Each structure stands twice: as structure tokens, then as C-alpha cells.
Amino acid sequence: MCSTLGRTVSSCFRPLSRYARMKKDEEIDGLAGENDSLLWSRDLERHYRGEFSFAVVQANEIIEDHSQVETGRNAIFVGVYDGHGGPEASRYICDHMFRHLLRLARENGKISKDVIRNALSETEAGFLSLVKQAYAIKPSIAAIGSCCLVGVIWKGTLYVANLGDSRAVLGFTDGLNKIVAEPLTKDHNASIEEVRKELKALHPEDSQILLMKQGVWRIKGIIQVSRSIGDAYLKRPEFALDSSFPRFHLPEPLRQPVMRSDPDIFTRDLQRDDKFVIFASDGLWEHMTNQEAVEIVHNNPRSGIAKRLVVTALERAAVARQIPYSEVKKLEQGIRRHIHDDITVVVIFIDDEMMDDVNSGPELSVRGFVDTVGPSNFNF
């Protein structure tokens, strides 16, 4: 029988009874995103502490970003899963992470760092079990992984957990009523000196732990992110890939994992000056700073704000490639990966007037992903 605390947690995330469909081609004043068949968005939906805005754009032939927002009576869950090597890992996280979190929260009677950490650990273990089952038939599944960014607001506390280089950024107002960006995550990416120092300290006898390839630092000369779900071939020697997979083949067997699956977890008691949190895959942050992103959100209408961030990134990517965004929109998925990455953005607004509101929020599920058939079968 559930404890009183267990029943309380269960009531926060009750079985979801209402679903919101993502939309294509929403027209927003001043935006050039209309007629982009690979761009979807959802605005504005309520959660118990405010509203949220959601947008996704596809670049890869099969989209590797999967994402979700789950809201309950007194809680909201956000997940952004940026896959690499294929969509299987990010899709698996989208299907299992929230379920693990909900079960563990019920068992423990609360949301906590340990609950989130254990939910991620179970998600990693489940995906590696899937890899083990499929490895003999499809060994390339060992090279599939995903960054994982998770946010939970429960009882006025924000929890953020991160593996990889997706990012959560808080926008808050200072004493002069100016909007300020505060990063809530650290990028786990070998391009960052702190990460390289960490890797060298963890692998002092491995002179090949970091190699410069194509102008960037990569772990074993292969991958930039240092933490993930999946990437079994860089974590367990039994999943090594032979020379028929030259991109992922390691010349020497692994002595120990060179990628990690333990998250950084951040907590914050929300304050009245905290206005919103931007959760986004690295495809957004390649084209704007944290401060630029929070200023865009702060200085524009809420409706369509996630799409506005995505379109701004797409316009900047087009400028960098010296091609008009109007021409980028004509490119098919796969070809567009030469211009920009898959991008997912979720903006969670935190409203002052709802900080002490005891009324329950709506039960809602919004998911962003495309299946292998193509964008016409975009589901939610």
C-alpha cells in the first residue's frame, strides 16, 4: 500500500488524460519560419506554475532529437534528448525516463536528486540491455547514444540533471529589472578545457584519451561529448566494434569506460525574480549565447517564443553558410544537416502570481519526435 507521501507524489503526476498536438507553420509576427516543413511548435500550454512553449526543427534524415513535457497537478517534467549515431537511444529515453522517475518518486514519496539520478541509471541500464540483445544482429547499435537533459519543478523546487551538451538556462531579473542569464548546467564536451582536464585526470595512462580531429578535441578521436546514455562501445569492452566500423573502431581494448553516464544535478528553490527556464539541445547554443537567448525570450511576446529562438538560430546558421534562410527551407532532411543540427527548445515560464497558488495545474503530455516515415507522421 502506498504511503501518504507516495500518494502525494502520485497526485502530482496523475495518469495523463489530455494530449497536445504540435503544429506546423504557425505564423508569428516578424518571423521567417512559415512554410518550413521541418519546423513544428506548440504554444501556449499551461502548467501548474505558469505556461510553456515548445518547438522542434529537423535537420537529419531521421531526427535524432526526442523530447517531452509532462505536466501534472503540482509538477512539471521536461526532457530534451539529443541523440547521435541514430535515434534509438533518444527514443528509448523518451519512452522510459519519465516512467522510471514517476515510479521511483512514488516509492520514495518525493522528488529528489537521488530519485532523478536513479531514474537515469535505470534508463542507461535498460538501453544497454537492449544493446546487448541486439548486438549480434546489429553491432552498430553499440555506437548509438544520446545526451540527456531533464528538468523537474516540484513543490517550488527546480531540479535539473544533465548528461552531455544540451543546456538549461534560467532567466531572472536583477535589482535594476534587467534580465540576466544563469546557466543551470555544465556542458560535458571535450571542447571545454575543464572537461579535458577531467578526462586526463581520470585516464592518466591513456595518451590517446583526447585527440584533435577535424579541428576539434574528441575522446579517442571519435566523439566530443563526455557523458551520455548509450555509446556502449566506449563503456564496455564486450561491445567493441571491429575494423569493419572504421569510425568507431578502437585500436586497443578498453581498460575502463572512457564515457560516463552519471549526471550533474542542480537544485534551486524558485524565487519571485526567476522568470523562465530555457531547455535546449546544443543545436540552439551553437548560434547564440545564454544572454542572447534570455533577452530574446524577455523582449518578445510569449506566444511562439520557442519557435522564435529556433528561427533565430536557423537564420544565423544560414548567414554563416552564406545562404538565405528562404533557400534553407527548401532543403530536405539530411541535406539540411550541412546547414544546422536538429534543434529542440522548451521555454518554461514561471509566473509570480502563481507562486503561492494552490490550484492544481492541467494534466498534459506534449512530445516532439518524428518517426522513420518522415515529417508527415510527426506524433506527439
Automatic annotation (TrEMBL):
One family from Pfam that matches here is PP2C
EC code = 3.1.3.16
The domain of life for this entry's organism is Eukaryota
Q: Which PROSITE patterns match?
A: PPM_1, PPM_2
Cofactor or coenzyme needed: Mn(2+); Mg(2+)
- Which reactions is this enzyme annotated as catalysing? O-phospho-L-seryl-[protein] + H2O = L-seryl-[protein] + phosphate; O-phospho-L-threonyl-[protein] + H2O = L-threonyl-[protein] + phosphate
Gene Ontology MF, one: protein serine/threonine phosphatase activity
> Which SUPFAM superfamilies does this one have?
PP2C-like
Q: Which UniProt keywords apply?
A: Hydrolase, Magnesium, Manganese, Metal-binding, Protein phosphatase
What CDD domains does its record include?
Answer: PP2Cc
- Class in the EC hierarchy, top level: hydrolase
Name all PPM-type phosphatase domain ranges: 51-350
**Has keyword Metal-binding?**
yes
Q: Which family does it belong to?
A: Belongs to the PP2C family.
This chain belongs to the protein called protein-serine/threonine phosphatase
Q: Which organism is it from?
A: Castilleja foliolosa
